[in-house]
Each structure stands twice: as structure tokens, then as C-alpha cells.
Amino acid sequence: GNPLLDELPLEVTKAEARERLGIDPATKVIALLPGSRPSELKRHLELFLDAGVRASALLRSRGALGDKETLLLRIALPETADLAAIESRLAAWKSGGGWNLDSSIVRVEVRQGDSAMVLRAADAGIVKSGTSTLEAALMDCPHVVAYRPGVLSSFIFKNFIRYDDPVGLVNLILRERGRPIRVAPEILMEEATSPRLAEEVVRFFMEPAVAAKQRSGFRAIRAKLEEGLHGKSPSQTAANLLLSWSRKGEK
To answer: Residue 179's CB: how many other CB atoms inside 10 A?
Structure first.
């Protein structure tokens, strides 16, 4: 189990999510989840924005975004984020060129405290590695996992840890022959560039089979998390187990 099964509005449909967020059903949407901690936002916010703008240009040039269509980039932030600081950075990014932001092709909006609804409403996402990747899976949002650590962390990771398995939670739940199954693509460290992220997220629009395969993995993940719960809450099940063990200890 996982507490996200209790916390997320899993039964909300894409149409309902869009209605709640005021998004037109025909609009193409990419959800951007750059993280919650200041250090994560520092490294990912502009990177994800640049990737989203590049994706809009690619979609237009490849015919997936019509001449009169606009791609919506929805930035989903936690309640703890400093919204004023984020909006200031967003304004600076736009004034600095925003990769030649063209409002006729792409528009950017910020949401706070409703990442699950943003993910459900989106067609695809760029998601910082962490719990958010599992949230995206449970909300059925095809996405690419990204993470750009600091220079020291990257050096330690590559030269001392030398870990080859996935890092995104979405890629650590399903296993085959003892090895994790990569459900979502991961682009990490120096490979996490805006052109690379843009190309990866555009695939969900251009290649329906890619999105369908990932969604199939999402269904398997949910089934795995619900395994053994028999329809009960995972949090309540864990609490009952703790109470049961404590009673045995008393005896």
C-alpha cells in the first residue's frame, strides 16, 4: 500500500479535473512539477519551463499543435512554496526571453496545493523525481522523470555510489526477475537539459502507443499497491497492524 491511495482523488476523471481547473477540454496541457524544496525549485523551475516552451515549438512544427492552438504549461506547486518568489522568478524568466516565449503558441500558469488535479487534467508531464512520480502514475498522467542534483551530489553519485537502477518511485514498485521495471523514462544529472526533456515529453503527443504503454504500467502499479488490502485503506490497515502487534506485546 501507500498513503497516496488515501490522499489522492483517484476517481476524478480528466474531464472533471479540467472543469474544476477551468481548462478547456480541447487544450493541450503539460504539467510541470519542479519539486517542493527551495533547492529543487532552484535547479528545476526554469529548466522545466524551457523544456515546455521547446515542446510547444516542436508540437507546432510537427503538426500536433494547430495554428490557432496554444499549449498550456501548468506549474503545480505545494502549499509550502513561496508563491511570490516563484512568480518573481517566472516574470524574470519571461523578461529574459523565456526561450523566445510566443504567447500564441504557449501560455504558463501557476497552481498551488492541487498537484493531483493538475496531473489528472494534463496530457503529459515533466516531474521531479520523488513521490510526485508515483502521484503522476496514480493520476494517470504520462510523464518523464527528471532530476538535476548539485555538483557535489552528482560527483558522489557517479564516482562513489555508481547506482544503475531507477531513482523515480514510479520505477521502483514493479519488478521482473528481481529488477525494477522502468515505467517512465528518467533523465538525470547533466543529461537533464531542456532539449532532451522537450523531445521526451513530445513523444506522448506524437506517439500514442508510448503514452498507452506507460498508462498500462500505471494500472499495474496501482494493482500492486492495492494488493492484499482487500479494498481497505492502506493507512487504516497499517494502523490496525500496529495495534495488533502492540496488543501481542502487552500479553
So the answer is: 10
Q: What is the pLDDT of residues 76-116, one digit of tens each?
A: 999 988 999 999 999 999 888 766 777 779 999 999 999 99
Kind and range of the H or E element at 28?
A: strand 28-33
Here the cell at position 224 is: 500492486
Q: How many residues would you count in the chain?
A: 251
Which residues lie below 8 Å from residue 241, measured CB to CB, with a gap of 6+? none
Other C-beta atoms closer than 10 Å to the C-beta of 145 total: 28
Q: Which residue has the cell 548539485?
A: 150
Q: Is 70 left (phi over 0), alpha (psi -120 to 50) or beta?
A: beta
Residue 215, CA atoms < 13 Å, CB-side half-sphere: 12
Rg (CA), the chain: 19
Q: Please give the grid coordinates belonging to residue 16.
A: 472533471
Can you tell me the distance from the alpha carbon of 240 to that of 246, in angstroms, rounded to the nearest whole number?
Answer: 10
Of residues 2 and 150, which shows the higher confidence score?
2
d(CA 245, CA 171): 31
**Predicted TM-score of the model (pTM):** 0.91
